[in-house]
Protein 1
Amino acid sequence: MIMNGIKDFQAPQYVDIVHPDKGFFGYLLRCKCPKQEDVSGNFIFLDDGIDCYKRFPSVKNRREEIRAEWNDRISRYHDIFQGQLCYVNEELIEDFIDFMTYGSDNAVRIFLEKFTAEVRASAIYDGLKPLYAVSHVCQLSADNRMQWPHIHVLWGIKKN
């Protein structure tokens, strides 16, 4: 299975994010997820606006370290943030989970590069740029139900 980019997803949803360092980064990195949550299909693919394409660390302590790094950068940005949430199309859920979990790192990187380019081309507001992006493939809700696989993009404005 090959994923094709943004067309594999439903229309994006948007939400204002006031303080990403007050819990949103922790949510993106699944720092408070249940111990049994499998993060093997989750990727970080934008870090401070830079393409990176790396699998989530399976060790929660390492994800918490990354969260601390991201929180420490908050002063680099103006106080305008927009969250973009892209849910995979229903008919592709199983294929997306399999692809992100078991696909080669190179195949996933190629897909995420295309997705990132399409996201950047769809700028939602003048001046906002995608800063952080992660995929959540097998995310459990608080009541142990599976969430719909999705991608988060945090948009913002870097200070000069």
Protein 2
Amino acid sequence: MTSLSTPRALDEKRAYQVAREAPGRLRLHVSRPTTGTAVVKANGVVDLGTAPRLWEMLSQRLHGSGTKVILNLSELEFFGATGIRVLERAQLLAEEKHTLLFIFPGECRCARRLLDLRDGENLNVL
């Protein structure tokens, strides 16, 4: 049995911490390239655990004063079906707020696959 203060125990504790934090991470970054336009860039994964964060960010941007929101999914590692539900909800809010919402899947194969299955229905896919 290892002591909690030995180097090996500390390494195991750090490895556990990293493993516990790594799955389900979603990083969101907002930029404003022009007046009235917000670009939300998502990195990491969009799944059942992280979708609420994505919705919160999109909702904030769509309630703002801008006229266009672009969601960049190109650097995602995973995009699950829950993410599609967020996009559908965001599109409804965008229509209500008279704001344009564009989805850019880029080279993210999982996002592109799900968006292709929907055949672009009610979503503005770039």
Protein 3
Amino acid sequence: MRLVPSPWNRTAFLDALGQWRGRSIELMPVDSTLLPGTLDSGRGTPCGLWLDCTDVDVIAFVAGTTDFHIDQIIAHEVGHMVLDHDAGVAGLAGVQRLLPNLDPALIRRVLGRSEFLDEQEDEAEQFGDLLLSGVSRWRASRPMRSFWGGDG
């Protein structure tokens, strides 16, 4: 199974990732005015969140942002998944306000893309950058395609 399609295709990637993880990946655009205060104080305002629920992974992102930014948020949150980062349910109260229809009992972990001041956030951001660098339609330089094993 080819997990990361080249050229980049968000839907194909999320379908393959969900198959690999054995659970669906759902994207959820959210109103940016609801994001401040979602995470614990001192963590900044997230532009994306990963909710590790019992039977689905939810990636929330700011509604109305660019496709480029959505892809970067997805890649960052996938970094948290693949690297098995854990922040527990810190920020769950903010998530309940943001997504009132989601049963909090189903949420096992909450991680958000905000400030990159801790090791997990920095690792996830680097993962996302690397994931997209070789397949992104915006960064498809010949040297990068060659480096990642594509047609050079």
Protein 4
Amino acid sequence: MRKTKRKMLQRKQTVFLVLAFILTCVCLSLPIGTFMPQSMEAASVMFNLWIKLPDGTYNHSVWPMFMLLLMSCPVTLMAIFAYKNRKSQSRICLFSMLFMLAWYVAYAMFGFVFPSIDNASFLPSLVAALPLVNIILLIMARRSIIADEALVRAADRIR
């Protein structure tokens, strides 16, 4: 009888990590805020890579936010495929959470502290909440990974 090795890609932490990856990709492509000018001009729309100005040009001053989310994508994929080593998978999740927290710091800096458009108020988009949902999913995945590791250690003690 042939024994097949079962992969642990069907674990619940994998679902959380895949959802976090998808949400990161969605946040990369959708607008995350709007600069509303004081005058009657058209609004400028802020994406992670650029700000689309009313005249159709792009201001690329917000590219660090794009890079933080872009670097988070392969880190989350690494966490998905590091299922054989739960300790490193847990650390990778923590590293991805740090990228999301750094994204929020950059978001606050570019949107509220140093706005790229003069005399404009910043209105955040609902899409800007996706990295927060991402952080929650990564926390849930990390807790599941730690629980799996504790379960394996308990089973090893019983043997």
